[in-house]
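Bug report (template v2)

What were you trying to do?
Predict the complex of my protein with flavin-adenine dinucleotide.

What happened?
Run completed; filing so the output is reviewed.

Input:
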Amino acid sequence: MSSEPRMEVEIAGVRFRNPVMTASGTFGSGMEYGRFIDLREIGAVTAKGVAIVPWEGNPAPRVAETASGMLNCIGLQNPGVETFLERDLPFLRESGTRVIVNVCGHEPDEYYGVVERLNGVPGIDMLEINVSCPNVKAGGLTLGTDPKMLEEITAGCRKRASQPVMIKLSPNVTDIRVMARACEAGGADAISLINTLMGMKIDTERQTFVLSNRTGGLSGPAIKPVAVRMVYEASRAVSIPVVGMGGIACAEDAVEFMLAGATAVAVGMANFVNPYVTIEIVEGIRNYLIRHHIDDVRELIGAVH
Amino acid sequence: MSVKERAYVLSQDMCAEGIFSLVLRVSFAGQVCPGQFVSLFTDDKSRLLPRPISVCGADADEGSIRLVYRVAGFGTEYFSRLQAEDAIEVMGPLGNGFPLELAEGKRVLLVGGGIGIPPMLSCAEALAYTAHEPVSVTCAAGYRSSDTYLLEELEAVSEVIVATDDGSLGTHGTVIDAVRENGVAADIIFACGPKPMLRAVKAFAAERGIPCFVSLEERMACGVGACLGCVAKTERPDPHSLVKNARVCADGPVFDAKEVDLT
Ligand SMILES: Cc1cc2nc3c(=O)[nH]c(=O)nc-3n(C[C@H](O)[C@H](O)[C@H](O)COP(=O)(O)OP(=O)(O)OC[C@H]3O[C@@H](n4cnc5c(N)ncnc54)[C@H](O)[C@@H]3O)c2cc1C
Ligand SMILES: Cc1cc2nc3c(=O)[nH]c(=O)nc-3n(C[C@H](O)[C@H](O)[C@H](O)COP(=O)(O)O)c2cc1C
Ligand code: FES
C-alpha cells in the first residue's frame, strides 16, 4: 500500500479532489468561509440556491437553535442568477475549487430559465436542482414530493444543461426510493440528499412560533441517522451516484455516509459551529483510510450493505 | 481577518445582578473596533450555535478583549460560570463597528440601553483616547434600576446622564427623556439597545436632523454572512442579495438609522 491514500472521487465525469463538499445555503458563495480556509482543499463548493430573479426570502426571525441542530426558514433569499454570474462565479473560479451551482424556482419554467442561463457557462462543474426546499410555499417541496413532477423537471433540466445535473431530494416523503428512481428515469446524473426535515418550534413563555414562517427546515447532527438511512435506501435503489448530507460534523460522520452508499458528502450546519470543519473532515478521512489500510477512498462507497 | 480559536479566561466578575464582565485572551485583540462583536460557543454538543456578544473593550498590549453580558438563557448562564484559566471557543472579530471617524471634532451623543451600554463604553473610550480632533462625548445610559454597571468607567471618559425605568436614579423614564431633560446638543449619535429604544433614538435624530448610527440584534447562525439567517429590513437594496434584507452579522450590526426599518 502507498503511504498517501487516494482521495479523488468522480461523479458524472467530474473529478473532485476529495469527497468533501459544502451543502448549499450554508456556505454562501464561498467568499465568507474563504477567509477561514483554502477553498482548493475541499472537493467542491456548492453555492446558495439561485433563482431567475432576486428573492427576498422570509422575514426574521429565520433561525432557531434546537437540540443538536437548528431550524431555518431563510426562504431562499438570493440575488438572482445574473448577480451570481457577475459577482460570485468569478470569485469561485478564481479560488480554484470545483463549483456546483444550486438552482431554485417556484415552478418548472423558473428552474429552466436558470438552467438555460447557466448552460455552457465556463467554470460551473455541476448543477444541483433544489426541488426540496421546505421554506418556499409555491414550489420546491411539492415538486420534489411528486414522482411524476420530479421525473419531468429532471428531464427538463437535463435537456437544457451542458453540465451534469444532480437533483437534491427532500426527506419529507414516505418512500425516498420512489423519488430517487424518478430522478434516474428523468436522466439525472446524480442525486443529493437530504435537504432539511420540516420542523417547528414554539416559544412557551410567549406562546408564539419562534420562526416567522412558523415552520422551518431542521438540520444538524439531530438529523444524521435519518439521513444515513435515506442515503442507504436511495443509493441501493438507483445506479447513479449519491451525494450524502445531513448532520455531518466530523470525518467519522462522512465515512458513515460513504459506507452507506454516498460517493461524496456535503457539510452544512457544521460550518456555523466550526469554520474550519470541512478541511478537518478531509484530513480526518485521510487519517481514517491510513488507519484502516485502505488506499482508495472509493473503497468506502456502499461498503456496508 | 476573523478567526475561531480557543481562548483563555483572564478574569470574570459580576458587575450587577445577572450582569457579568468576562476578559478573554485572544489573538485578535489589536484588530477589534468598537461596535464589533464575537461569537462565543458553549461546550454542550446539543447547543451548537454561537452566542453573539459585543466587544466592550480591547487591550492590544495585553492581547485581551472584555465582554459584558446579561444572563439570558443557557449559553450566557454557562459563560457566567467560567473562571480564570478556563478555556472557551471564540470567533471574531465580526461585523462592521461604529463609524468613529465621522465623530472627529464633533459633539457626540452615545445612547446605550440596558445590555446595549457595553459597546457604548468602548466607543467612549476610543473617542477619548484615539480621536485626532477634540470631541465632546455625552453618554445617555438607560438602566432598569439603580443597580448600574459600567457607570464609573463611562464617567471617566465622558459626560454621563442616566435614566432608570423605576426612577431610582437620574431621569425617571427613557434615555431620550433624559436627553431632552438635560438639553443635550449633538452633531452625531451612536446607539445600542432594545428595539423600542432604537426607534425612539431614530425618531429623535430625524426630528433634529442629526446623523445617527444604531447597532442591531438578530438571531444568528453562522455569524459571518454565509447563511442569511440574521437579516434586517433596509430602505435600499442590501449589498449581498439586492433585496432590502441586509445581514446584521456581516453588513452590520451597525447601520445608518435612516437606512433600516425598525418597526
Ligand atoms: C450583534 C449582537 C451583539 C450582542 N451583544 C451582546 C452583549 O454585548 N451583551 C449581552 O448581554 N448580549 C448581547 N447580545 C445578545 C446575546 O447574543 C443573547 O443574549 C444571547 O445569545 C443569549 O444566549 P443564551 O444561550 O443565554 O439564551 P437562549 O435563549 O438559551 O439562546 C437560544 C438561542 O437564541 C439566541 N438568542 C437568544 N437571545 C438572543 C438575542 N437577544 N440576540 C441574538 N440571539 C439571541 C442564542 O444565541 C441561541 O442561539 C448581542 C446580540 C447580537 C446579535
Ligand atoms: C441556513 C440554511 C440554508 C439552506 N439553504 C439551502 C439552499 O439554498 N438550497 C438547498 O438545496 N439546501 C439548502 N439548505 C439545506 C442544506 O444544504 C442541507 O441539505 C441540510 O442543511 C442538511 O445538512 P446539514 O445537517 O449538514 O446542515 C440550507 C440549510 C441551512 C441550514
Ligand atoms: S448569521 Fe449567517 S448571515 Fe448572519
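What did the reviewer find?
The pocket of FE2/S2 (inorganic) cluster (ligand 3) is lined by residues B 220-223, 225-230, 247, 249-250 (CB under 6 Å). Helices of chain B lie at 74-80, 117-130, 151-157, 175-181, 195-208.
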